[in-house]
């Protein structure tokens, strides 16, 4: 059943191979690249028509709206309430939320990264939504750094080098063997 306030109405166009993620940003480079905000718990995110969407709980909702690169942040609790009305006998699951998103946005298939949770993929697939695994990276463009990202990497490397330089005299004062503070043969 389609939500009357959703972006898709009955009989409208469907979308295929929509990128779908379910991960936290600490373990998923794709999720961190996609959303641009640190989120410690796994959450649903997807890309549709060039717009980035995230589904977050109330603890993360306002912060990620403010700090992240998402075009729209959906409230997990509101989606859970809608799921409860559709299946009141059970607690809403992540697969229920993904199914509701697919219905609301007219999505008939998702493409997921290689490390997407298998159980969730199976549950979503059992609901009639096709799941495909991306060949290679889900976002291949993340391999190439922007000028700003490259500058941040240079600054980080310079800071690390400064720490190593300042650490060397300290190690000598402790009478540590020279090899204990050597990297690739350089002391």
- The helix-and-strand class reads alpha/beta
How many helix segments?
A: 6
Helical content band? 40-55%
- Indicate how many domains the architecture comprises: 2
Shape: elongated
CATH class of the largest domain: Alpha Beta
CATH superfamily of the largest domain: Creatinase/prolidase N-terminal domain
Q: What amount of the residues lies in strands? A: 15-25%
Biggest beta sheet attributes: 6 strands, mixed
Q: Which stretches of 5+ consecutive residues score pLDDT under 50?
A: 1-6, 8-12
Q: Could you tell me how far the N terminus lies from the C terminus, measured between alpha carbons in angstroms? A: 67 Å
Number of separate strands:
6
Widest sheet, order of strands: 4-3-2-1-5-6
Average residue-wise pLDDT: 86
Tell me the series of helices and strands, N- to C-terminal: EHEEHEHHEHEH
CATH topology of the largest domain: Creatine Amidinohydrolase, Chain A, domain 1
């Amino acid at each position: 059943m389609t939500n009357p306030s959703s972006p898709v109405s009955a009989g409208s166009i469907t979308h295929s191979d929509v990128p779908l993620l379910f991960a936290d940003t600490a373990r998923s480079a794709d999720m961190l690249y996609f959303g641009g905000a640190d989120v410690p718990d796994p959450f649903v995110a997807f890309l549709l028509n060039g717009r980035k969407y995230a589904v977050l709980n109330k603890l993360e909702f306002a912060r990620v709206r403010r700090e992240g690169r998402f075009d729209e942040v959906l409230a997990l609790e509101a989606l859970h309430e809608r799921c409860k009305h559709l299946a009141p006998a059970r607690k809403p699951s992540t697969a229920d939320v993904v199914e509701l998103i697919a219905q609301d946005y007219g999505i008939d298939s998702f493409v997921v990264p290689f490390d997407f949770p298998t159980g969730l993929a199976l549950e979503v697939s059992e609901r009639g939504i096709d799941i495909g695994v991306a060949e290679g990276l889900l976002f291949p463009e993340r391999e190439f750094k922007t000028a700003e990202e490259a500058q941040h990497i240079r600054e980080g490397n310079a800071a690390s080098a400064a720490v190593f330089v300042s650490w060397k005299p300290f190690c000598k004062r402790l009478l540590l063997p020279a090899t204990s503070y050597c990297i690739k043969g350089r002391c």
